[in-house]
Amino acid sequence: MSEVVNVGILGRGTVGGAFRRLLNERADMVEEVSGRRPRVSGVLSRNRGDFDRLLARSEIVVELIGGTDPALDYVTQALEAGRHVVTANKQLLAQHGPALVAAARRGGAQLRFEAAVAGAIPVIRVVQESLGAIPIEKVFGIVNGTTNYILTEMARSGLSYEEALKQAQTLGYAEADPTEDVNGADAAAKMTILARLAFGVPVKLNDVPYEGIEQVKPDDLAYAKELGLSLKLLGVAERVGDDAISVRVFPCFLYPGHPLSPIEGAFNAVMVEAPTITEITMSGPGAGGSETASAVLGDVVSVISGGSPLFEENARLRVARDVEMAFYLHLEVEDRPGVLAQVAEILGQNEVSVRSVVQRGRGDDATLIMVMHPVSEKRFAAALKKIARLKFLRSPPRSIRVIEEEF
Ligand SMILES: NC(=O)c1ccc[n+]([C@@H]2O[C@H](COP(=O)([O-])OP(=O)(O)OC[C@H]3O[C@@H](n4cnc5c(N)ncnc54)[C@H](OP(=O)(O)O)[C@@H]3O)[C@@H](O)[C@H]2O)c1
Q1: Does the CB atom of residue 87 touch ligand 1 within 6 A?
Q2: How far is CA 400 from the centre of its chain?
Q3: What pLDDT shows up at residue 336?
Q4: What SS3 class is residue 195?
Q5: How far is CA 160 from the centre of its chain?
Q6: From the CB of 12, is ligand 1 less than 6 Å away?
Q7: Which of 90, 138, 166, 190 is catalytic?
């Protein structure tokens, strides 16, 4: 019989419960691949178990509580006491990653968090370990399943945002309070973690501007459908010039044939681009109890097998405040002479150049749909602010970014 490794589990909810079951079911296999047999040394929930006793009995602590209080305190204590920690908690990592890495160094412990980004897809391992020694140019993708489900349903059946959200809640793809998913905050936390790993820069959550999908209207998707485009909420972390990176979350039109275009429903997908590998795309379930638990179990096996992943944050790259993107602009206007000229004048004053214009409808139904060439996001935002004040607009202007290859 091989040596036992004691695993303490914090949380017995969706993921905690699934992880405990999986650990018991797969104990033989874990023993075979890692050389040690895992045993659950304690489980903590709100009204069951005692953290100090669990800590004293565990070599590995698996944190599946969520949030930062008391998770931050528990994880810090565990790492400082030399216990290896596996967590699925993106908020904890996004807000306190550097402090936790420092605690792990102090305690000589490992900190692993594969399940914190893109659920069952092994994206952390790929960025941190498989590609750990090559210069990554860009990591981007669909890292929130709730919003991808909503956008897929809006495109497929013409539902409004509100109807698609309700459907997602009924089917369990969205929580009762979906705010952090639909406004982009959840994706921003995940991109903070990915950007730190990919570029070795101590990106803070506040450095990541995010937009959600609440403003997307069925006619944006109808327009996309007509041109064969898809609309996705993307998280993007990329190098900008020689000395900067940019990390953002925004809804975006993708051209047909883009590797992220066919990713539908609650699935996630992440692409990594680097000169030496061209590009890699990974897709799969981004959430779910057993899916997330399998990523947690993979981390437990890695911890037992030994070998700390790379986690250096010493790159001298700043976080860029502005980047270039192409935009689609949707304006509902009164159909009268001079409208287009006034819009074009504002765009011109801000050095925004128009690639195509289509007018739909007449009279009270007139709509202008414009696509811009890539432009500084700041200049486009300045133009949009001025356009929003034009008297002939029947509703506020709507803009969506475009990944413009082949558009
Ligand atoms: N669900 C997913 O699909 C998914 C996917 C990826 C990542 N994650 C991450 O996995 C983590 C767990 O998510 P979940 O969906 O399993 O959450 P959950 O179902 O709400 O379960 C949370 C568990 O933590 C316990 N807990 C909460 N506050 C506590 C406290 N102060 N002290 C001790 N225990 C406490 C709860 O205890 P009670 O049982 O007493 O309430 C419950 O057992 C989160 O970080 C989440 O972001 C989840």
Answers
A1: no
A2: 18
A3: 85
A4: helix
A5: 23
A6: yes
A7: 190
Residue 378 is among the residues annotated as catalytic for this protein: no
For the chain, which ranges sit under pLDDT 70?
A: 1, 310, 405-407
- Protein residue closest via CA to atom 27 of ligand 1: 65
Measuring CA to CA, which residue among 245, 158, 247, 156 is closest to residue 206?
247
d(CA 329, CA 327) in angstroms, rounded, equals: 6
Ligand 1 pocket residue status of 333, Cβ below 6 Å: no
Predicted confidence at residue 195, as pLDDT, reads: 96
Residue 35 pLDDT: 94
What's this model's pTM, rounded to 2 decimal places? 0.94
Nearest-5° Cα angle at 55, 50 to 60: 130
Instruction: Determine the pLDDT at residue 405.
Output: 64
Tokens at 242, concatenated: 């020689």
Could you identify the atom of ligand 1 that is nearest to the CA of residue 92?
45
Helix (H) or strand (E) run with residue 21 in it: helix 14-25
Residue 407 confidence (pLDDT): 36
Ligand 1 pocket member 287 (CB < 6 A): yes
To test ligand 1's pocket by mutation, which of 20, 65, 149 has the most ligand atoms within 8 angstroms of CB?
65
At 139 the pLDDT is 98
Q: How far apart are CA 260 and CA 224, in angstroms?
A: 15
Q: Whose CA is nearest to atom 41 of ligand 1?
A: 46
pLDDT at position 183: 98
Polymer length in residues for the chain? 407
- Cα of 71 to ligand 1 centre, how many Å? 10
- What integer pLDDT is reported at residue 227 of this predicted model? 81
Quick one: which of 145, 157, 7 has its CA closest to 83? 7
Going by DSSP bridges, is the β-strand pair 138-142/111-112 parallel, antiparallel, or unpaired?
unpaired
Starting at the earlier edge strand, list the strands of the sheet with 60-63.
37-44, 4-10, 60-63, 84-87, 111-112
